[in-house]
């Protein structure tokens, strides 16, 4: 996908200090030679401009550089991701007073629940969706795929499940991948684990009232 490199390099021209092909003063050179020198200088300038444009294009097509991954920054991010996903599970996958948990899509539809109250297997909600799919539903909506507003259209569970499976298989997607700034290795605003833990605590306090 990258354009082919032109058969010259910037280092072969010496643009910084163009060297005249002769040491004789210009007025002593015959007109034909002067014309040739002028033409060569113009060609050099044009080649320089093309080379600069090509380098700028190459730079713009490259993905942003990843931050240097040290083992400590890697384990810090993994620990933050684990805390964040735990908190998000509390927010989106907890059972209500009737012992029922549901993703947002199934919550707005009166369909029979896949699992009886308090009988959902580990990792699943009563609606039949998995916890990962439910968190993915939220991440999709936050990234403009489906609405974030309750009651408005979310991605259909069958499509959502297929998308998640493909992303997991192809890119090793895990919850949080859409919310980390890859250039800095930090969370986008409002997406850090502390904020999610506060949201979970606030919701749990409200439920107990
Ligand atoms: Zn569901």
Commentary on this structure:
Helix content is 48%, strand content 2%. It is mainly α and 209 residues long. The protein has a domain at 71-201. It has a two-stranded antiparallel ribbon with strand order 1-2. α2 packs parallel to α6. It is elongated and about 100 Å long. The structure holds zinc ion. Zinc ion (ZN) is lined by residues 102-103, 105-106, 127-129, 157.
What is the strand and helix layout of this fold?
Layout: H1 31-61, H2 71-92, H3 104-107, H4 131-142, H5 157-171, E1 180-181, E2 186-187, H6 193-208
Helix pairs in contact: 2-6
**Net shape:** elongated
Structure annotation, total helices: 6
Radius of gyration (Å): 30 Å
Total number of beta strands: 2
Instruction: State the strand order across the main sheet.
Output: 1-2
**How much of the sequence is in beta strands?**
under 5%
Q: Considering DSSP H and I runs of 4 or more, what fraction of the residues is helical?
A: 40-55%
How far apart lie the N and C ends? 59 Å
The ligands found in this model are: zinc ion
Order of SSEs: HHHHHEEH
> Averaged pLDDT, please?
81
Report on the biggest sheet: 2 strands, antiparallel
Class based on secondary structure composition and strand pairing: mainly alpha
Uncertain spans: 1-23
